[in-house]
Amino acid sequence: MRVEKVNDDLINVYFNPFYFKDIDLNNKMELVDVIKGLIKKVEVRYKLFLSGFYKIKVYPSQKLGVFLNIIKIDDNEFSNTTNFRIVIYPNEKFYLETEFYELFDNVKKRYCNNKFYIDSEDIENIDSISDMINVIYGNEVKDLISNSIIIK
Predict the structure, then answer these.
(1) 6, 7, 26, 54: least buried by Cβ within 10 Å?
(2) pTM, 2 dp
(3) Is-contact 104 123, C-beta < 8 A?
């Protein structure tokens, strides 16, 4: 698990696949229930003190895990409670970002801003290189596809 508090209105959370090993990520109701429980654990463990109304963007990947963007929408009307609107993006692309070209041989790469990007579907196992990559998803992937060049 990795938690990054970007600012008072945005928290990014990553859960590795272990947290979801017995969960069908395509079952939205089951996934939402698990996410709610994990958010409570994250709130306590990292002392986040969430209150207000939040939109939670959920990006699930069986291979990589689950990525959350917790976005604060309103705190005036919900000052004494915490409410979530959970939105699941089940078919999103995930790209692996690295500065090391040779890390992935024989794989189509994208190049943008002095970094290389590889579609996560093209890689079987990322465990051994996980400390040398970042994962991008959502709008970042859309920007990458429109602003990058394809190289071999």
Answers:
(1) 7
(2) 0.89
(3) yes
